[in-house]
Amino acid sequence: MNNQAPENKSAIKFFLLVLLLSIPFWILAAFTRDLTKILPIKLPISALMTFCPMLAAIILVYRARKTQGVKELLQRAFDYKRIKDKKWYLPIVFLIPCIAALSYGYMKLTGVVPTEPKISFLAVVIFFFVYFIGAIGEELGWSGYVIDPLQNRYGALKASILLGLLWALWHIIPWSQAHQTPVWIIWQSIGTIFLRVIMVWIFNNTGKSVFAMVLFHTMMNISPYLIPNYGAHYDPFVFSVLLGITAIAITYFWGAKALAE
Fold it and tell me: Which end of the chain has less Cβ packing within 10 Å, N or C?
């Protein structure tokens, strides 16, 4: 018997529900004060849609398994015990900061970054916890709910590319509301797809730990802002190239079907 059809149908419902839940935040951002002029980072109020994937997953899980299913889903945000091989904390924590450092080094050599980075430890701590909470809102949906049905149907690489593409499209309006240029958005979208390939690779090699994804997602969000002036010199083109090289190497060595050992 083919048991993939229900999972695929759930994935479609999930994406549609995420879209419907996100629309009010996009509208709110269009009619409220521009927070990008207040905050030190380009973060529009529509960034609050970060909790929509979690809400969509909760709604669908509750319909299928009631309160117990929702409880199990929420617990996965801290399922660090699934990470049996602790060496995977190295890419979880350090891969994106290393890519950020390489990006900064390249821009420094080419004269794009005129000053040395000034990093406030307190700001890093605050941003870490803010982004960690936001990452829970996203990854309980992307990793805790929808990626497995996609992998079962399409295999790891195709599923990660599909999810990465939808993930990027979901961000386009908030990026636009943060006054990013079309070129910036294009390269950021490409980098987002490569990021999801890397994330599915880590996910599949850490016992499908959502906590691993939350922590990686947090480092992914905070690392570019360690570049001078809260990411003022962040270049999505350089990041996308480095992420693309990483994703291609992962696919070559781990295989497209499972992206796992």
Answer: N
Residue 153: inside a domain, yes or no?
yes
Q: Does residue 260 fall inside a structural domain?
A: no
Question: CA 244, CA 235: separation in Å to the nearest integer?
Answer: 14
Split into its structural domains, the chain has a count of 1
> Per the domain annotation, does 121 fall within a domain?
yes
How would you write 157-189 as a 3-class SS string? HHHHHHHHHHHHHHHHHHHHHCCCCHHHHHHHH
Tell me the pTM.
Answer: 0.92
Looking at this protein, which amino acid is placed at residue 7? E
Domain residue limits at 234: 4-254
Which residue from 45, 43, 2, 52 is spatially nearest to 22, judged by alpha carbons? 52
What is the C-alpha to C-alpha distance for residues 176 and 178, in angstroms, rounded to an integer? 5
pLDDT tens per residue across span 118-168 = 667 787 888 899 999 999 999 999 999 999 999 999 999 999 999 999 999
- The DSSP 8-state label assigned to residue 208 in this structure reads S
- CB 231, CB 225: distance < 8 Å: yes
Amino acid at 171: H
Residues 6+ apart with CB under 8 A from 119: 226
Residue 259 lies in a domain: no
In contact, 247 and 197? CB cutoff 8 Å: yes
- What span, in angstroms and rounded, lies between the C-alpha atoms of 237 and 20? 30
